[in-house]
Amino acid sequence: LVAIVRDIDVKTENTENHALSGCYILSPPPIVVNNVTFFFYFVHIVTSKASLHDLEDNDLDALMADLVADISATEEKFATERDTFTGSVPVAPIPSQPQSNFSLLASTDTSRPATFSNSIAAPPLPPASKPSKVSLFLNGSHTLRPHVEELEEQMKADKIKLALEKLKEAKVKKLVVKVEIMDGSSKTLMVDERQTVRDVIDSLFEKTHCDCNVDWSVCETNPDLQTERGFEDHENLVEPLSTWTRDTENKVRFQEKIDKYEVFRNPQNFYLWKKDKKSLKDMKDKDKEQLLEENFCGASVIVPDLEGVLYLKEDGKKSWKQRYFLLRASGLYYSPKGKTKASRDLVCLVQFDNVNVYYCKEYRIKYKAPTDHCFILKHPQIQKESQYIKYLCCDDEWTMTLWVTGIRIAKYGKQLYDNYKVAVRKAAGSETWANRTIQASSSASTPSPTPKGRDNGAQPIIIKCIIDLAILTC
Fold first, then answer.
1. Does pTM top 0.70 for this prediction?
2. Which residue intervals define the domain PH in the entry (predicted)?
3. Is residue 1 over pLDDT 90?
4. Matching CATH number, 303-412, of 2.60.40.10, 2.60.120.650, 3.40.140.10, 2.30.29.30
């Protein structure tokens, strides 16, 4: 429309002494580029020698008003289509071509004088329901560009996310661990820092096919210090193993430790240890559950009230002295003055935040301990003899188990009880599965009764087939 107006203005200025006789529209064949069809229209105005002064100013003003209104309406329509256009560029049906590339549009109304407004037949505007190809192309070019840019940004973000995940995975510590089994064999596992000891135990259950009772534990042994410690189920195995030196002779073992969760099977032996052992042995299960609930299910875990005389090794010497010890949740306290029980004389020997408790072997020979029932408290990074290790010795094995278990409760608290419940649940599930497997195999191996009318000589063949089927099923 703008081109038509400009063309009319030029013709009006250059042909004041000529009259407009008609308007020709040249429509060349359409051009297809990238599946988009382009239509071009050329308008040629033919003038005659008649003077344009015959045209009245009112007619020219009316024509200009109509053209401006059409331009405004078209621009509003383009804006509306651009806002609502969200999909791909639709391909409009190709209109039928005229019989000739040239057509004369002249006024056919003879009852009224020919004027500028009715003598020029302008191309009709596209209907509202069918937008023109040019408008669709323009709108599509504006809407497709943001859509493509959004796709590119999304792809770029996905690549960055994938790269970060791979980088994070590469930073995860991984160790190849050789685990020794009680029967002398060994299993090799790939363990990363996200796996807990409970996960490693489950993997070893699958590899060794042993019974899944709660006493199985992954332990570390240190030949230099002659110590052994069972890892707690919630610990990450990679962290303590990373503290080992390159030339270490430490080993990881998979074995049963009865004292691992003994406190939850018989809590009366640890919390009521001062009472008569015979009365504690006959305690009912209901009373045991109540005792556990009182000490582990409250706002804070109650540590067993342990106290008594233990042997303490002097720093830098192989001499052992009897000292009075007291266990509290904050740490292990003792009296440097001997067996006195006065609270004002108690001194904190060690706190449990950064130390672990280890069982010791043959300390009577190595350090001239009074007995072989010894345990130490040390930081996990200490792998050789050090002045920061605290050596203690007990009179018997039960006293040693009592103190070691009490220290574990003071250090780990309710987490220890949660580990036990998880172990019991998994052990019960594996036992149920094992019972079902045994029942299925036993039912499959049971011989069926011999049908009547058949020879008994065929019975062994039928039984053999059923047994073979049971073996295949297992």
1. no
2. 303-412
3. no
4. 2.30.29.30
